[in-house]
Design goal:
By secondary structure, the chain is of the alpha+beta class. The chain contains 10 helices and 7 strands. The strands form 3 sheets. Strands 3-4-5 form a 3-stranded antiparallel sheet.
Length: about 240
């Protein structure tokens, strides 16, 4: 359903995943799918309900009702009634003084254009939280305006988000190019000259052992048939000759 609604293009500024979460929150609170999309907005992981949705939740609960005792520029007062007994089980109010104390009064937007409606929205959400919290299926009653809805769109007189700002999703950063390891430079072992004593010892071994002589020629002087003391130049020659085969 969220995919169908997203594909319709009628809900600008939201994607399929956001619509799915709104649907889930609204359905859990007992609202229809379309009412959930248009009347519920999830902000920072918390669902916000328009004041009309909260009023509807009280009316349709079958357990509670409400009466507006006052709604003017000085404040809003609401009585919550228990339908079974017909008695008032609680009274909630939100006054202009409270709005001023919270630095809401006179703010640009709905608090300037619709102050009476905003006083009602704050009052009814507080009434639900305090006196009939069970009407939203476990969700806490807040309007989007109360939980930062102005950061993602325009707030209307119901405390609801309208004209959602399009949230541009930054393109993923490209994967960094692999770093080529520094090439391994192979350097030959340094040539260590043979000492005079080592040359004498090696030469005596070559003269006395034809097998060692032949192996030495194949290893260091391939193609050469004879060897003399002048061919014994490196310590490597010495170590090859004197090491037992």
């Amino acid at each position: 359903m969220a995919g169908f609604m997203s594909a319709s293009g009628l809900f600008a500024g939201t994607n399929e995943a956001q619509l799915a979460v709104q649907l889930m929150a609204g359905l859990e609170a007992g609202f229809s799918p379309f009412a959930s999309i248009t009347g519920v907005f999830v902000i920072n992981g918390k669902p916000g309900f328009g004041s009309n949705m909260l009023a509807q939740a009280i009316k349709r609960s079958g357990r509670y009702d409400y009466r507006v005792v006052q709604k003017n520029l000085e404040g809003c007062k609401i009585n919550i009634l228990d339908l079974k007994s017909g008695q008032v089980i609680g009274t909630e109010e939100f006054t202009r003084e409270m709005a001023e104390r919270a630095r809401l009064w006179g703010n640009r937007g709905p608090w300037t254009s619709y102050p009476e409606a905003m006083l009602f929205a704050r009052c009814i959400s507080s009434a639900v939280r305090t006196h009939c919290p069970d009407v939203l299926g476990g969700h806490i009653a807040y309007t989007p305006e109360e939980i930062g809805g102005d950061q993602i769109g325009t707030i209307d007189e119901h405390g609801m988000v309208t004209e959602v700002k399009v949230q541009e999703i930054p393109a993923p950063s490209p994967d960094p190019l692999p770093v080529e390891p520094d090439p391994v430079v192979l350097t030959p072992d340094p040539e260590i000259p043979i000492t005079l004593e080592q040359k004498k010892e090696a030469w005596e071994k070559l003269k006395s052992d034809p097998d060692v002589k032949n192996a030495f020629l194949q290893r260091f002087y391939p193609g050469q048939t004879t060897v003399g003391p002048s061919d014994l130049k490196l310590k490597e020659h010495y170590e090859y000759i004197v090491t037992p085969f």
